[in-house]
C-alpha cells in the first residue's frame, strides 16, 4: 500500500466513526468527515463539516444545573448523494445492499476514493466509483465525483443530490442531553444546476451558505426537479441508462460564511462560486498541485515504510486543520482538529505540541495562530482582573471570543455521574502561549512580530504569574497556590476543602522561564517600542523589580532524594497498586474514571494521567533547566534527571495521547529503545485508536504533531536558540535516517539529513545571510546560502568533524 495510501476493505459498522475521522478531508478553512454521502447521522455514521473558528453557544440543563457550552458548529452536510433505479429503493437505505466496498485515502493527492458494488431488492447490480476532495487550492470549494455503471440492467436512473441543514452537534455520546441544535435555516433555493442552503448559528449569528452544482456527463438529464423540506434541499435528476454504460455525476460545492473577507454577501458568494467553479478534473488538478506544494514544505522522511505512512497521515491531518489558508482567519488549533466534536472544538495548551514544529515549516501559519491568542488578550486580561490579578490569565479551553470555555462538570461514563470539573485551574496554558511566542521568534527572528504583538503577550503573561505568586517571609520564597498541573488526575490534596494545588513544579519552573523571557524581551525591544508598551501597560519599575524577584525566589518542591516533586504534598500520597488494577481492569489509562466509579479518587495516589514534571525535560534542555533552577538557588544534580524520569514513568497511566509523545522525547537520550517504543505507541494513537473509541470523535492533533516533532526536533536535537541553530542527532535504533526541509530565519528549504553517522545540512541558493550552526556542542560553523556541510556526530565517530560540499 506504500506510504501514501490508507485502505479499508469491506464495511465495519463498529469502526465506521474511526474511519470517518481518519478519512476527514479539509483545507484549514473547513473539513468534512469521511462519512458516506448516502448516510445521515445515526448510530453508525456521523457526517460532520466543521468550519475553522465557527463557534456557537447554547444553554442546557444538566443534572439540575444550567450550563452554557460553546461548540465548533457542525455545518450543513454538503455530501448527500444517492441514486436508485426509478422503481427501486435509494442506495444506502437498506442494510446489506453492498456486494463489495473499498475506501482509500490518498494522502499525497488529498483524495478520498471509494469503489463499491450495490445490489437492489430487484437484483440490479450497480458499480459505483467516487472521488472526493476538499480543495487545498480554493478553500471555499469541495467536490464529489460519482461514476455509476449498471452491470446487469438498463432503465431510468434517479439521482438525489442534496444539502442537509438538519444536522446537529450530536457526535459525542457523552454530550447527549446537552443542547446541540446550532443552526437556524434562513433560506434554501435552486437556480438551474445549483441548489443552495443558508443557515445562521443560533447565538453567534454566523451565516453559513452552501451552494451545490450537480451536473452529469455520459447521459442526457431528462428531468431536473427541486425537492425541499425544512432544512433540506435536493436536486432530483432523472436520466436513461444502458447496461454497461457509465455516467459521471459531479457535485461541486461552495461554502462561505459571514466571517469571510472579500465577499459581497455570504449567500451570493457561495452561489456565484458554485456557478463559476471549474469541473472536477480541473479542480482536482489544482488541488493536487496545492498539496504537492505543501508536501514539499512538509517533507519528513523517516526511512521506514510502516512509520512513514503514519507520519504522512499525521502531517496530512495537521495540514488539513491548519494550513496556509489559516492565515488571516483568526482561529486557534482545536485539540481534536476539524475532525469531530470531542472537546467541542476547543483550543487547549495542545498548541505547545504543534506550533514549535510548524514554526520551522510554515512560520506564516504560526504567526496567524499566535495572533489568535493576541486578539484574545483583552479576554485574558479581564479573566485575570476578575480573579483579582494583574496581567493576562489565558483560559484552559477557549473558542470564539477567548473567554474560559472549560465546562464546570464532566461525565464519567463508567459511573454514570456528572462530576465537578476543575481543569480550568490549569493556568499553565498561558505559559504555553509564552513558550510558543518565543519559539516562533527564535525560529524566524521576526522582531516586528515580537515588538508589535509577542512582547505584549509575554509581558502580560509574566505579570500574571508574578502577581499570582505570594511571598512567604519565613522561607524567603514565593508560592503559587490554587493551580493544577498538566496531570489532570490531581486537582487537590486528599480531603482539601477547595480545589487547587500548591507549587506545581512544571508550572513554577515554566513561570520562571516566562518571567526571564519577559525580562529579555524588555532588553530586546527597540527603545521607542519599549517605552510605548510600558506606558500602555502601566508597567512601572516596581513591577519589573517584582518580575525579577519572583524569577529568583519562586519555590520548587523536591523529594528528600532530590527528585523534583510534582507539587507540594505529592511525596506523602499513597503508592498506587498498578499491578493489581492492571490485573483487574486491563486498560487503566482512564484511572480517574475507574477510581471515581469505585468511590475513590486519584487525588489520594502517586498516579498521574500524563507527563507533568517530565514536561520540563520535554520543553527545556538539561542545561536550560539546570540554569533556571540555579537561578532559584536549587542545584539539579545530573544524576537526578534519569532518576526523576524513572520515578514518574513508573507512576503514569498515559491517559492522554500526549503522554507517549513526551515520554518518547524525554527518554530519547537516556534509553533510546524505550523512546522508540513510546514513539511507535504515539504513532499508533489514532490509527489504532489506542484510547478506546476517542478517535471517532476527532483526531488527537497535539499527539499527531508531537510525533512529527519527535522526528523533526527531538531525534535530531534541533534547537533554534539565540541566533544559532543547534543540532545534536541521536537517532533511536529503529530509525535508519531522517530527512527533512526546514525554514529558518528567511531561508526556505534547508535540507537536513541525519543518520547514525552524522548529519548533512544543505542551504539552497538565496540572498539570505549565512546561518550559524552548532553541531553536537562543537564550535559555531557559519554556512552560507548554496553550501552543503556534512558533520560526523560524536555518537558515531567519537569526535565531531565538519566537511563542506
Ligand atoms: C489532556 C490535556 C489535553 C486535552 C486536549 C486531555 O485529555 O489531559 O492535556 O490538553 O486532553 O487534548
Question: What does this molecule look like?
Answer:
The protein is α+β, with helices and mostly antiparallel strands. It has three domains: 5-296, Glycoside hydrolase, family 65, N-terminal domain (Beta-galactosidase, Chain A, domain 5); 362-653, Glycosyltransferase (Alpha/alpha barrel), CATH 1.50.10; 727-804, Maltose phosphorylase, domain 3 (Sandwich), CATH 2.60.420. It is 31% helix and 26% strand. The strands form seven sheets. The protein has a nine-stranded antiparallel β-sheet, covered by helices on one side. The chain has a six-stranded antiparallel β-sheet with strand order 18-25-26-27-30-31. It is globular and about 90 Å long. The two termini are 37 Å apart. Beta-D-glucopyranose (BGC) is lined by residues 335, 343, 348-350, 486, 488, 609-610, 656, 658, 702. Residues 335, 343, 348-350, 486, 488, 609-610, 656, 658, 702 line the site of beta-D-glucopyranose. InterPro entries: 6-hairpin_glycosidase_sf, 6hp_glycosidase-like_sf, Gal_mutarotase_sf_dom, GH65_N, Glyco_hydro_65_C, Glyco_hydro_65_M, Glyco_hydro_65_N, Malt_Pase/Glycosyl_Hdrlase. It comes from Actinoallomurus spadix. Pfam families: Glyco_hydro_65C (PF03633), Glyco_hydro_65m (PF03632), Glyco_hydro_65N (PF03636).
Amino acid at each position: 500500500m506504500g506510504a501514501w495510501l490508507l485502505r479499508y476493505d469491506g464495511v465495519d459498522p463498529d469502526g465506521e466513526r474511526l474511519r470517518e475521522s481518519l478519512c476527514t478531508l479539509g483545507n484549514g478553512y473547513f473539513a468534512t468527515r469521511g462519512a458516506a454521502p448516502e448516510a445521515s447521522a445515526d448510530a453508525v455514521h456521523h457526517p460532520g463539516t466543521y468550519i475553522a473558528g465557527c463557534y456557537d453557544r447554547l444553554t442546557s440543563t444538566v443534572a439540575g444545573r444550567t450550563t452554557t457550552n460553546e461548540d465548533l458548529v457542525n455545518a450543513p452536510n454538503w455530501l448527500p448523494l444517492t441514486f436508485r433505479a426509478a422503481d427501486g429503493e435509494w442506495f444506502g437505505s437498506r442494510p446489506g445492499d453492498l456486494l463489495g466496498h473499498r475506501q482509500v485515502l490518498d494522502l499525497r493527492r488529498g483524495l478520498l476514493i471509494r469503489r463499491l458494488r450495490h445490489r437492489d431488492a430487484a437484483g440490479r447490480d450497480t458499480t459505483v466509483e467516487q472521488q472526493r476532495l476538499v480543495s487545498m487550492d480554493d478553500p471555499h470549494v469541495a467536490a464529489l465525483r460519482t461514476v455509476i455503471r449498471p452491470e446487469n440492467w438498463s432503465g431510468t436512473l434517479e439521482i438525489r443530490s442534496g444539502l442537509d441543514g438538519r444536522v446537529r452537534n450530536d457526535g459525542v455520546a457523552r454530550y447527549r442531553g446537552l443542547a446541540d441544535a446550532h443552526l437556524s435555516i434562513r433560506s434554501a433555493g435552486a437556480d438551474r444546476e445549483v441548489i443552495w442552503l443558508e443557515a445562521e448559528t443560533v447565538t453567534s449569528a454566523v451565516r453559513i451558505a452552501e451552494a451545490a452544482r450537480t451536473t452529469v456527463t455520459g447521459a442526457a438529464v431528462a428531468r431536473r426537479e427541486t425537492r425541499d423540506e425544512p432544512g433540506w434541499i435536493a436536486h432530483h435528476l432523472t436520466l436513461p441508462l444502458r447496461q454497461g454504460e457509465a455516467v459521471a455525476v459531479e457535485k461541486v460545492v461552495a461554502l462561505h460564511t459571514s466571517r469571510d473577507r472579500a465577499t459581497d454577501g455570504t449567500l451570493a458568494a457561495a452561489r456565484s462560486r458554485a456557478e463559476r467553479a471549474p469541473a472536477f478534473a480541473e479542480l482536482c488538478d489544482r488541488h493536487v498541485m496545492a498539496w504537492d506544494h505543501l508536501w514539499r514544505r512538509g517533507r519528513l522522511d523517516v526511512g521506514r515504510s510502516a512509520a512513514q505512512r503514519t507520519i504522512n497521515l499525521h502531517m496530512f491531518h495537521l495540514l488539513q486543520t491548519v494550513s496556509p489558508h489559516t492565515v488571516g482567519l483568526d482561529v486557534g488549533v482545536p485539540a481534536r482538529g476539524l475532525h469531530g466534536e470531542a472537546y467541542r472544538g476547543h483550543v487547549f495548551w495542545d498548541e505547545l505540541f504543534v506550533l514549535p514544529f510548524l514554526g520551522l515549516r510554515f512560520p506564516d501559519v504560526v504567526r496567524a495562530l499566535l495572533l489568535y491568542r493576541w486578539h484574545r488578550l483583552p479576554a485574558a486580561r479581564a479573566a485575570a482582573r476578575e480573579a483579582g490579578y494583574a496581567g493576562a490569565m489565558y483560559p484552559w479551553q477557549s473558542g470564539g471570543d477567548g473567554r474560559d470555555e472549560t465546562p464546570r462538570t464532566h461525565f464519567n461514563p463508567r459511573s454514570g455521574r456528572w462530576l465537578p470539573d476543575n481543569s480550568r485551574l490549569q493556568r499553565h496554558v498561558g505559559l504555553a502561549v509564552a513558550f510558543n511566542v518565543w519559539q516562533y521568534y527564535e525560529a524566524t527572528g521576526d522582531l516586528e512580530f515580537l515588538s508589535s504583538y509577542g512582547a505584549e503577550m509575554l509581558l502580560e503573561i509574566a505579570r500574571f504569574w508574578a502577581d499570582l505568586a505570594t511571598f512567604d517571609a519565613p522561607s524567603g520564597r514565593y508560592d503559587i497556590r490554587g493551580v493544577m498541573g498538566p496531570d489532570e488526575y490531581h486537582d487537590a490534596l486528599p480531603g482539601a476543602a477547595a480545589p487547587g494545588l500548591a507549587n506545581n513544579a512544571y508550572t513554577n519552573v515554566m513561570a520562571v522561564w516566562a518571567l526571564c523571557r519577559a525580562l529579555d524581551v524588555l532588553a530586546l525591544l527597540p527603545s521607542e517600542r519599549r517605552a510605548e508598551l510600558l506606558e500602555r501597560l502601566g508597567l512601572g519599575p516596581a513591577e519589573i523589580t517584582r518580575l525579577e524577584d519572583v524569577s529568583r525566589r519562586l519555590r520548587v518542591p523536591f523529594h528528600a532524594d532530590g527528585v523534583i516533586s510534582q507539587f507540594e504534598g505529592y511525596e506523602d500520597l499513597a503508592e498506587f497498586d498498578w499491578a493489581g488494577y492492571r490485573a483487574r481492569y486491563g486498560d487503566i489509562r482512564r484511572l480517574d474514571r475507574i477510581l471515581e466509579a469505585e468511590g475513590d479518587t486519584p487525588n489520594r495516589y502517586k498516579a498521574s494521567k500524563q507527563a507533568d514534571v517530565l514536561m520540563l525535560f520535554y520543553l527545556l534542555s538539561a542545561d536550560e533547566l539546570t540554569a533556571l533552577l540555579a537561578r532559584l538557588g536549587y542545584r539539579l544534580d545530573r544524576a537526578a534527571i534519569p532518576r526523576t524520569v524513572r520515578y514518574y514513568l513508573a507512576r503514569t497511566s498515559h491517559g492522554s495521547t500526549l503522554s507517549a509523545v513526551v515520554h518518547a522525547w524525554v527518554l530519547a537520550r537516556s534509553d533510546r529503545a524505550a523512546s522508540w517504543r513510546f514513539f511507535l505507541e504515539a504513532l499508533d494513537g489514532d490509527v489504532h485508536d489506542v484510547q478506546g473509541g476517542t478517535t471517532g470523535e476527532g483526531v488527537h492533533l497535539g499527539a499527531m504533531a508531537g510525533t512529527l516533532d519527535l522526528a523533526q526536533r527531538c531525534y535530531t536535537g534541533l534547537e533554534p536558540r539565540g541566533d544559532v541553530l543547534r543540532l545534536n542527532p541521536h537517532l533511536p535504533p529503529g530509525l535508519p535516517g531522517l530527512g527533512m526541509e526546514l525554514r529558518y530565519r528567511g531561508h526556505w528549504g534547508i535540507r537536513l539529513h541525519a543518520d547514525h553517522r552524522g548529519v548533512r545540512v544543505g542551504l539552497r541558493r538565496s540572498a539570505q545571510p549565512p546561518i550559524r550552526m552548532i553541531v553536537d556542542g562543537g564550535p559555531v560553523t557559519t554556512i552560507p546560502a548554496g553550501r552543503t556541510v556534512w558533520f560526523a556526530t560524536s555518537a558515531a565517530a567519537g569526535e565531531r568533524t565538519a566537511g563542506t560540499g
